[in-house]
């Protein structure tokens, strides 16, 4: 028989056996023949030798059996690495030779959408998702056509009917990966025409069509998917306003007019009858009805929704103190186009929850039970009637029973008793939770079958279901997750967990048995990373924590994915295992990185409203007056410089108080150390946020930060700045101007340590925050002033009474000059020059003094108004020492999103360290070194960007001082009118974020 014919018969027979399982025998002359050789075509196979040796049941030198060949083909197909396998049998003098002819299976590799003409929407990421080509899954040529159809459908739904898609397919034969790149030219987007309305609209169709608002202010809107759905929603809203709550508005068709590049939209609108929803027996606002009656959301009417509305309204009234409230409903058809639904409410007498008690608990403390109770006794400001309803009682009962069952009390029973007219007072209600714990079930024995790991004792010791411990399904679930996580982390992705729990011989004990099927181990064949067009490998390589030959761990893959995201240069990190279902021990791990945009631009408009008043020439408001300062911000950033994750950021601000330009260069992860960053900053600032003067500041700094732990960060920096005070704006005694207005060059190395253990940095409830900053300015480092500077802060937060927070904040600062040199000053009036040794307070430039007071330091002062003042004009001079302490009690107030605050602020800015005093009164009108106290009340309203803060403070002992009335020219000429002034007792602040 010719070789070609033999090959055909054997191949056809084997493939038939493989696919259909039929028992077809090969030609008898080959059965039992010795296999002289096994060859592969092509010689290079995708299966590793160790996998091939495990999968192949036939070897050279063994007898040929068709069952063995059939098994070999099945197992090779089972690897998932082949799309076709043929076997050729060639007879020879020493037996038969087998040739396996294989066709490799391809897998989806990187899928990218590129093109400078992609218009939003859709985005490149949305187009990529629309292709539905998942990384690492098998690929067929038909998938390319399907992907293009899906992408085109998305483009057309967004009005891009003229879009062009050009796919590019690249194949990596070594790794069996197909890279697909789609270049998209969106073309011009189509616009709407007036929609066509069909159905029973109840109104003229042209009027309903205009409701869609597809025509903008000047022209027809673009035919995007978002605008299409917005048009449907606009029609629904119009119908709802006419009480047609069951109106059904759907998109039936969209046809494209290529000549006009317009889209004709067909909308089916079934208006439905008018439905009037009202209440009887008690008044409920329409907004409340829309909240509690689901008809408004579901846009249909049925008995289930009405019953749900009854239940919601009953809970609403019971929660407002009407604990006996009863709600029912009735329907009436007024005519064919109008229906009336009335909720009949019998509120009953109003009650007040006086107490909530817990009885019968022994295993848990009453406080632990109360933490899970939603029912609440009446409060002073919030929940003035308490919180109670049948629904809440059921919820609390289930929560307490779940707590007990998790601790082994399977027969627990909780009863919620509400005693009306408590202690004879009408309307008072006492709620009691009566708990019958029952007997606790415990684990008597724990057996684990199938766990053959060396670290078995360590794993067993960490399980929740230990002998003698409470038995619960929750503990079993915890053990299951823990065990499977360990197996998956160590390369056993197919591990399974089963358990049985049966009563043991001893009463109320359980015999627990865990059965583990470990499955075959899986290892990393290689890690393939794609998508780095700009990013350099030296940035990514240190974050590659998975290497060839190591166990295939999903846990480690997820950790590596998080590290890559944390680099801040990738918008998306796709992770997959190539051929996850294939029966091979070694698998490729795929990571495809999508780099973020290189440029970021932002512009913002805002303003400040505070006690900032005054003017550049007026002397009338040394303590400030209410004023508004508009502000414009502009920012441009260049990301991922040099492909190393570095960034260059330009920021600018212009307002009536501040004009600033800064340029910052950030090099994160210096020398590939996580948490170590280096930054260089150049700054120009012209500010008058302190009313006493306007200062121009040029500054350059370098900073190295290192995160020591999750909570602790160290920072080292070098600052150099040149500060010049505009003498024309310095509102102080003219005799002091020559000294205070001297140009200052400050060169300061500094170190800072920050320890942050707050649960929420924007709105902390527990934890603490510590910060210490110390720097030394010295001529040796390049400046002309010598002084050291220390600023420390401590904040503490503690929760009590479940949702009340006690918060405190303490700040301490000290500037200490040294090596003071004599200075020569000239009297501007006489022109006489004198040389003398300045005091420590005079030596430190006024722009370097501590300034305090305001919303984040001491609310008894306007911003930057604390501390020493000029004895002639009354304007603040700042000081060389500061001490502030604030205490707040934060509590729930008028709803879930609003919080009230009672606060007390104390402290001041002092002339120097030796002047710090805890005195509570001024010794004379020139004394500012005393402790100012203020108390007040604030409101915090929770928003996504942080709490909006409003604080009203009353300063108990504000400073009184000499001031002048007149202009700056009057000050120079000595013609200003003296007058005694006082910082106002009442201060207010509006801002975002907590005070500390």
Question: How would you describe the overall organization of this protein?
Answer:
Strand 10 and strand 11 (about 260-270) form a beta hairpin. The chain folds into 8 domains: about 5-105, Ubiquitin-like (UB roll) (Roll); about 105-185, membrane protein fhac (Ubiquitin-like (UB roll)); about 190-270, membrane protein fhac (Ubiquitin-like (UB roll)); about 275-345, Ubiquitin-like (UB roll) (Roll); about 350-435, membrane protein fhac (Ubiquitin-like (UB roll)), CATH 3.10.20.310; about 440-515, Roll (Ubiquitin-like (UB roll)); about 525-595, Ubiquitin-like (UB roll) (Roll); about 600-990, membrane protein fhac: a member of the omp85/tpsb transporter family (Porin, Beta Barrel). Mean pLDDT is about 90; it is low at about 1-25. The protein is about 20% helix and about 40% strand. The longest helix is centred in the N-terminal third of the chain and has 18 residues, at about 5-20. The chain is globular and about 130 Å long. With about 1000 residues, the chain is of the alpha+beta class. The protein has a 16-stranded antiparallel beta sheet. A 4-stranded mixed beta sheet has the order 5-4-7-6. Strands 8, 9, 10 and 11 form a 4-stranded mixed beta sheet that branches. The chain starts with a helix and ends with a strand. The chain contains 19 helices and 43 strands.
């Amino acid at each position: 028989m010719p070789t070609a014919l033999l090959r055909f018969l054997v191949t056809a027979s084997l493939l038939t056996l493989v696919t259909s399982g039929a028992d077809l025998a090969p030609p008898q002359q080959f059965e039992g023949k010795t296999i002289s050789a096994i060859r592969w075509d092509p010689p290079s196979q995708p299966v590793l030798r160790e996998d091939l040796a495990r999968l192949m049941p036939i070897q050279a030198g063994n007898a040929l059996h068709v069952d063995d060949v059939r098994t070999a083909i099945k197992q090779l197909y089972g690897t998932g690495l082949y799309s076709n396998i043929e076997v050729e049998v060639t007879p020879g003098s020493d037996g038969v030779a087998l040739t396996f002819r294989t066709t490799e299976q391809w897998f989806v590799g990187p899928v990218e959408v590129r093109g400078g003409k992609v218009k939003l929407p859709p985005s490149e990421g949305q187009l990529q998702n629309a292709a539905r080509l998942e990384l690492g899954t098998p690929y067929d040529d038909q998938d390319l056509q399907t992907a293009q159809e899906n992408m085109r459908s998305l483009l057309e739904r967004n009005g891009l009917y003229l879009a062009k898609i050009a796919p590019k397919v690249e194949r990596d034969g070594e790794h069996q990966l197909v890279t697909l790149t789609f270049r998209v030219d969106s073309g011009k987007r189509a616009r709407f025409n007036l929609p066509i309305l069909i159905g029973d609209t109840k109104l003229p169709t042209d009027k309903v069509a205009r409701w869609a608002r597809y025509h903008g202010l000047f022209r027809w809107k673009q035919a995007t998917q978002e605008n299409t759905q917005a048009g449907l929603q606009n029609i629904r809203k119009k119908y709802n306003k006419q009480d047609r709550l069951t109106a059904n508005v759907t998109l039936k068709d969209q046809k494209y007019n290529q000549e006009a590049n317009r889209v004709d939209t067909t909308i089916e609108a079934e208006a439905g009858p008018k439905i009037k929803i009202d209440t009887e027996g008690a008044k409920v606002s329409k907004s409340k009805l829309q909240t509690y009656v689901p008809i408004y959301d579901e846009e249909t009417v049925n008995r289930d929704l009405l019953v749900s509305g009854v239940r919601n309204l009953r809970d609403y009234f019971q929660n407002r103190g009407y604990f006996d409230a009863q709600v029912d409903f009735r329907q009436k058809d007024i005519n064919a186009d109008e229906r009336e639904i009335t909720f009949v409410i019998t509120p009953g007498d109003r009650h007040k929850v006086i107490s909530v008690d817990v009885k019968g608990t022994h295993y848990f403390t009453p406080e632990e039970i109360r933490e899970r109770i939603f029912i609440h006794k009446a409060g002073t400001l919030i929940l003035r009637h308490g919180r109670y309803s049948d629904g809440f009682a059921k919820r609390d009962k289930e929560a307490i029973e779940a707590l007990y069952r998790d601790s082994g009390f399977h027969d627990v029973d909780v009863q919620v008793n509400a005693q009306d007219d408590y202690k004879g007072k009408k309307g008072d209600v006492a709620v009691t939770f009566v708990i019958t714990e029952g007997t606790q079930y415990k684990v008597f024995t724990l057996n684990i079958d199938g766990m053959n790991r060396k670290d078995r004792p360590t794993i067993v010791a960490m399980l929740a279901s230990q002998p003698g411990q409470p038995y619960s399904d929750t503990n079993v679930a915890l053990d299951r997750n823990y065990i499977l996580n360990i197996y998956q982390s160590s390369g056993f992705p197919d591990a399974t967990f089963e358990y049985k729990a049966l009563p043991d011989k001893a009463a109320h004990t359980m015999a627990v048995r865990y059965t583990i099927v470990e499955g075959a181990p899986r290892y990393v064949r290689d890690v393939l990373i794609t998508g780095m067009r700009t990013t350099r490998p030296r940035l990514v390589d240190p974050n590659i924590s998975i290497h060839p030959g190591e166990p295939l761990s999903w846990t480690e893959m997820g950790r590596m994915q998080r590290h890559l995201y944390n680099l801040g240069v990738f918008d998306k990190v796709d992770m997959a295992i190539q051929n996850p279902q294939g029966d091979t021990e070694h698998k490729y791990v795929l990571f495809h990185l999508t780099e973020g945009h290189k440029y970021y631009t932002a512009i913002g408009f805002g303003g400040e409203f505070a006690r900032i008043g005054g003017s550049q020439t007026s002397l009338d408001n040394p303590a400030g007056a209410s004023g508004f300062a508009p502000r414009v911000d502009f920012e441009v950033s260049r990301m991922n410089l040099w492909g190393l994750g570095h960034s260059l950021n330009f920021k600018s601000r212009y307002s009536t108080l501040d004009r600033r330009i800064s340029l910052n260069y950030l090099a994160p992860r210096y020398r590939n150390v996580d948490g170590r960053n280096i930054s260089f900053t150049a700054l120009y600032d012209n500010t008058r946020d302190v009313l006493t003067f306007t200062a121009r500041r040029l500054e350059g700094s370098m900073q190295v930060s290192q995160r020591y732990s999750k909570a602790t960060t160290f920072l080292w920096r070098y600052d150099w700045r040149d500060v010049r005070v505009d003498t024309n704006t310095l509102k102080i005694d003219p005799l002091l101007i020559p000294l205070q207005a001297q140009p200052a060059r400050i060169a300061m190395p500094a170190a800072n340590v920050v320890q942050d253990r707050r649960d929420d940095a924007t709105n902390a409830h527990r934890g603490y925050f510590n910060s210490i900053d110390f720097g030394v300015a010295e001529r040796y480092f390049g400046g002309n002033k010598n002084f050291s500077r220390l600023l420390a802060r401590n904040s503490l937060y503690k929760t009590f009474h479940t949702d009340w927070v006690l918060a405190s904040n303490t700040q301490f600062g000290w500037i200490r000059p040294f090596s003071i040199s004599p200075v020569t000053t000239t009297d501007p009036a006489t022109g006489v020059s004198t040389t003398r040794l300045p005091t420590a307070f005079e030596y430190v430039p006024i722009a370097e003094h501590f300034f305090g007071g305001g919303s984040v330091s001491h609310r008894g002062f306007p911003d930057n108004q604390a501390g020493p003042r000029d004895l002639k004009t009354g304007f603040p001079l700042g000081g060389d020492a500061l001490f502030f302490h604030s205490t707040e009690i934060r509590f729930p107030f008028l709803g879930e999103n609003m919080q009230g605050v009672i606060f007390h602020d104390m402290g001041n800015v002092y002339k120097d360290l030796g002047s710090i005093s805890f005195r509570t009164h001024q010794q004379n009108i020139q004394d500012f070194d005393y402790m100012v106290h203020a108390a007040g009340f604030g409101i915090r309203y929770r928003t996504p960007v942080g709490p909006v803060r409003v604080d009203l403070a009353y300063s108990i002992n504000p400073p009184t001082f000499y001031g002048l009335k007149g202009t700056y020219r009057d000050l120079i000429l000595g013609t200003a009118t003296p007058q005694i002034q006082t910082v106002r007792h009442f201060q207010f602040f509006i801002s975002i974020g907590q005070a500390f």
